[in-house]
Amino acid sequence: MSKTVLVLGAGLVARPLVRYLLDGGFRVVIATRTVDKAHTLLDGHPAGVAVTLDLTNPVDLDARITDSDLVVSLVPYTYHVQIARRCLALGKHLVTTSYVSNEMRELSAEAERKGLLLLNEIGLDPGIDHMSAMRVIHHVENAGGKIVSFRSYCGGLPAPEANDNPWGYKFSWSPRGVLLAGRNASRWLENGAVRDVPSEELFANHWPVEAEGVGMLEGYPNRDSTQYVGLYGLKHAATMFRGTLRYPGWCRMMKGLVDIGWLQLALPPAGATTLGAITAVLCGLPATAGPDEIRKAAARKAGLEPDGDAVRRMEWAGLFSAKPAAQVATILDVLGAVLEPALAYKVRERDMIVLLHEFQAVLADGRKQRITSTLVDFGIPDGDSAMSRTVSLPAAIAVKAILDGELKASGVKIPVDPAVYVPVLAGLEKAGIVCREVFH
Prior knowledge:
Blueprint: E1 4-8, H1 14-23, E2 27-32, H2 35-42, E3 48-52, H3 58-66, E4 70-73, H4 80-90, E5 93-96, H5 102-105, H6 108-113, E6 117-119, H7 128-142, E7 146-158, H8 175-181, E8 186-190, E9 193-197, E10 207-211, E11 215-221, H9 227-231, E12 239-246, H10 250-260, H11 275-282, H12 291-302, H13 309-316, H14 331-342, E13 351-362, E14 368-378, H15 386-403, E15 411-413, H16 418-430, E16 436-439
Parallel strand pairs: 1-2, 1-4, 2-3, 4-5, 5-6, 6-15, 7-12
Antiparallel strand pairs: 7-13, 8-9, 10-11, 11-12, 13-14, 14-16
């Protein structure tokens, strides 16, 4: 009898995972609020089942977990610890593509006692970035060398031919998630010194990054990089940096939005029913101010040129206009509601994933060596996006390895061990997702 995988969520990245598991002979149950999306993903496959699930209903969640052999959670990360606790109680493995939280990490000892694996960060970033980095790190260390510097960048972007809006960006994952990431503080290790950047200054720290075959992009810090010194075992590294990639101009514009107040999780201003009115109030003007006055006030508050590129991007999005503001919970969500349709992919457009690693190594004989690892992947027109493939296929390959008995770990893990990354990277290469390593 085929084993059953319970997939929680039917969002933008779920399809490649679902189809991989169905094609691999597993029974797949997709449980989600919007069951129509699940039916679309299954496309009538006889081994697929779509069910409605309310994650706030513990009885319903337990019943679905009980009937499965393994759970994959693709719902927002805020649910993952709750789901992990139920998996532990019911004796099931769990796979997620999200970062490990402190609360999740606290479940590791119990998972080890019960022989259960809670595998997290098995997507793209985090995920393929870990695995491709560890393959190089272990290669150097196994030859008697050491890594003294590591820089890594990853970004999901429109393919160059689809980069046709002033923002230089389109959504291949949750719009809210993209905006929330702009509220993160960051920390990294630079030549032996720790650099701390508060959330409001995140986008003030950016620099050009050359991507082979793509051209010049813009990189900025991603969360706390210093924790990966230990996670990657880089005890000799004086530099440890992980960053995000965007097309040039993104950071200046996003810093302006932060300074104006558009990334706040506060209630929209009372009585401000249009996008322009919200911007006006945030800039100290009455809600009735005109578009030109709002534009100039926004530029002043953000320290930008009124006719510069960053302000023109905001104007294009309607942030100084009389366009109605969505009736949602926070100012950030108002911004997300207007950007989601404006920055959507059109039919047959491709997205692009760019992942870059740069290592500085000292070899066993004392020679210095620069090593790069590069992944550039494109979406399939009218098919799966590069983002969905690179996020969900690593998880799908890991699920198969766990259920086939090839992956025998327990506890809360991320994919930094050869037992995980070797089979997953091999499976990705069969799917055409290849990290190209060059030893300079």
